[in-house]
Amino acid sequence: MKGPLRKTMTWLHTWSSILLGWLLFAIFLTGTLSYFRGEISHWMTPEQHASYVTDDTIMKAYERLSEVAPDANSWSISLPTVRDNTVGLSWQNEGENQRRRGPQETMNAATGESIDGRETRGGDFLYRFHFELYGMPRGFARTVVEIATMAMFIAILSGIVMHRKIFSDFFMMRTKNRSLGWADAHAVTAVLALPFHIMITFSGLLLLSSSLIFWTENTRGGGGGGERNQAPNAQQQMAENGPRGGQGDLATLTTTRTEGGRMTEQRTQAMNGARGQDRARAGADTSEVRARPNRDARETEGERLGERRTRGEGRQAARHQGRQDIPTPPLRNMLTQAELLFGGDINRVQVQNPLTADATFTFSPVDRHMLMAERGSNDSVTFSATGLEVERSQAKASENNSFFSAAGGVLHTLHEARFADAITRWAFFLAGVMGTIMVGTGSVLWAVKRAKRQMGQFGYELVVITNIASIAGLCGAVAVYFWLNRLLPATFENRSNWEINGFFVAWLLSLIHAIFYRNKGAWVVQLGIAGALFCLIPVLDTLTSSASLLHAIVHVDVLRLSFDVMCLLLGGIMLATARYLQNKARRVASPKPVTRKPTLEGAAK
Amino acid sequence: MTALWGILIVSFFSFMHFAVSVQKHHRDLYKKMAITNKEFRVLQSVAWITLLCTLIPAIQHWGVGIGIMTWLLLITVSALAVTVLVNFAPESFAKLWRLLGVVRFIAPPAERPQRTK
Predict the structure, then answer these.
(1) Which InterPro entries match (chain B) (predicted)?
(2) Same domain, A460 and A605
(3) How many helices (H) and strands (E) does chain B have?
(4) Would you call A604 and B1 a contact, using CB atoms and an 8 Å cutoff?
(5) Does the distance separating the beta carbons of B28 and A427 come in below 8 Å?
(6) Which residue of B lies nearest to A603 if distances are taken between CA atoms?
(7) What's the pLDDT tens digit per position in A467-508?
(8) How far is CA A72 from the centre of its chain?
(9) Can you tell me the distance from the alpha carbon of A481 to that of A587, in angstroms, rounded to the nearest whole number?
């Protein structure tokens, strides 16, 4: 390992990446697909495809909710956006745990019917797989992924050092030469998307960094989980501080806006409040004022529950009497006003005390304009039942503003491309594809370079087999996962498990195939099959969905169309690679290149 | 949205100049003529200036931190397009170059690459 810097770096580059290259390929591929997580999930529940937005959507949602949940405490409607074409309805009944998500259903935005989607993990499976793998203890899998990320980071840095002429090779592809073709594909994809590679690896490294801390149980549980794990942590923290920050706790219980795993402003305030009495009182006060005007912040738990029960009964009685008397609120007007105010689509409508005279309607937009905004705090505007604007609130900058948490937030946002619109999302995706190609060609390159010297040796053959299975096999397995989703009957028992089982069975089959046919065109066969499966996905889509592709084009179902285009693109890349490999195999077999076209360089000589 | 397309197109233009300033691709376009110092400097400066110009709308659109990162990604896409074009369709690249390349006003114009039979 001793020697000049460049040689050392080459050694480091080779060995740090080949050991974990296959895992990295899987992480890169599934991670890249996760940029289209919403699209994949949408595609994989074809029952939703018939839904599209109309002007009446919000009224339909209102009617549907008055039918199914007339007695609920609060309603929450998530309207169709660019990233979702159905309406999500959920509601909280009287006396239910406010923190937990209430009953919910998905509604067809055009017809107002409830949609009973098939059971599937959708894009979440691929997303989870890219940092937690599958069927392993979570902490362990995360640690493995973190180590692989570390290896990737080392490989990137050493790769930069060992690359002699980054700029002159910038656009160079020497496809005619045997091993240089791979080397160029590796170098070009690496250099072109270098900023992306550094960003994605570094941010991934930080996101999972706590998985390397073994000595404290707490951080490990919440390690790198991002969104999902912060809420339980907060709750835990509150439970610990319960007796001391009693008022803070109270404030949390009285909030009615809590929905899903999101923390609302009040709850966050209450959380901070649990740390100090003064702030707790402030938090309690504000949230009281916001949530219910007529409630005393200092009342005891028992009294409050009692009162709530009586009030609830009273309200229900009033509702049953006066239900016909309540005029339908001018929801469409409110929606237009809110859209004008925020200059964009409205995502979420929150209704308090629905179907009563003192109902309030809170509209929040899709865009999070502030990257550093506090979780759950958002721009919103509230209307009364008659359509008058009552309250406006703005997203607050996070209080916890240390440099490290700020940098972490930005990296997190970048890693997940949360801010991305269509073009940027595609740019991220393409860069991810380049990263995947880089990792894949890197592993292939290792074998190609050693082909002459080590053919037949155990280590070399092992690498060749694993290369085929982990690169071509995984592509095929993903395709099989998509196909199974449509081919398994919608009511099949344990369906989502079988989709995943199919994924792994396909992967295993490719491994077995690779063992026997590793030098007889296993690459071409497997890549060809995977590519064909991917390219045929639009056909499958239009045949097995509740609405044809034409319907998707007419109603501009961007999600579904992007998924199909993405599959065509991936399939095209795989087929092109398979063809390239086939031609090369032929060229190697026949010593004299016959079909070689006269090149410009050849002419110059 | 227009800003995004603008970034993609202008950076494509800029990467064309980068590509031609590389000796090998220069030779593809201008046959045997070696690249002169002046030509190289002009190509590089045109490329850098246009490329940096595209940074402005990106920063306006997303703010500094995210803007720079997204800009890097977007120009990656156009660099990829140039790479594919230069390597797999050199003739269409030459056509585009005759159409768009600024340097033809300064350096000798690009000739049609000769095809040998």
Answers:
(1) DUF3325 (IPR021762)
(2) yes
(3) 6, 0
(4) no
(5) no
(6) B116
(7) 999 999 999 999 999 999 999 888 888 888 999 999 999 999
(8) 31
(9) 35
Please give the Cα distance from A557 to A565 (Å, whole number): 12
| Whether A427 contacts B77, CB under 8 Å | yes
**Which H helix or E strand runs over A203?**
helix A194-207
Q: Are residues A470 and A556 in the same domain?
A: yes
Interchain proximity B22–A167, CB inside 8 Å = yes
Of A446, A471, A472, which Cα lies nearest the Cα of A461?
Answer: A446
Residue where a domain terminates, one of A180, A205, A225: A225
> Could A371 and B114 be called an inter-chain contact, meaning their C-beta atoms sit closer than 8 Å?
no
Place of tokens 């860069």: A431
- Outline where DSSP puts E strands in A300-359: 346-352
Predicted complex: ipTM over 0.85: no
- Domain, as residue range, for A124: 1-44+120-225
And the tokens for A408?
A: 């972490």
Quote the distance between the C-alpha of residue A537 and its chain's center: 21
Residue A40 dihedral angles phi and psi, to the nearest 5°? -65, -45
Containing A88, the helix (H) or strand (E) segment is: strand A87-92
Task: Kindly report the nearest CA distance between residue B7 and chain A, in angstroms.
Answer: 11
Tokens linked to A280: 């707790």
Is A142 among the domain residues? Answer: yes
CB atoms under 10 Å from CB of A349, counted, come to 24
Q: Cβ contact (<8 Å) for A428 and B72?
A: no
Residue A25: the pLDDT is 95
Taking CA–CA distances from B88, the nearest residue in chain A reads A173
Q: At what angle do helices A558-589 and A537-544 cross, to 10 degrees?
A: 140
- Asked whether residue A40 is assigned to any structural domain, the reply reads yes
Decide if A173 touches B, using CB distance below 8 A: yes
Interface of A with B in 379-418 (CB under 8 A): 410, 413-414
Round to whole Å and give the CA distance between B69 and A573: 26
Estimate to the nearest angstrom the gap between the alpha carbon of A66 and the chain centroid.
32
Domains in chain A, number: 3
Q: Is residue A109 part of a domain?
A: no
Same domain flag for A568 and A468: yes
Chain B residues in contact with A176 (beta carbon < 8 A): none
Say how far apart CA A434 and CA B81 lie, in whole Å: 12
A583 lies in a domain? yes
Residues A272 and A141 in one domain: no
Among B26, B64, B77, the residue to mutate for chain A (most A Cβ within 10 A): B77
Q: pLDDT digits over B19-69, tens only?
A: 888 877 777 777 766 777 887 888 888 889 999 999 999 888 877 777 888
Alpha-carbon span B32 to A272, nearest angstrom: 72
Q: Which of A182, A208, A225 is the last residue of a domain?
A: A225
The reply to whether residue B83 touches residue A427, judged by beta carbons under 8 angstroms, is no
CA distances, A238 to each of A223, A234, A250, A401 (Å):
19, 6, 11, 21
Residue with tokens 């609920």: A72
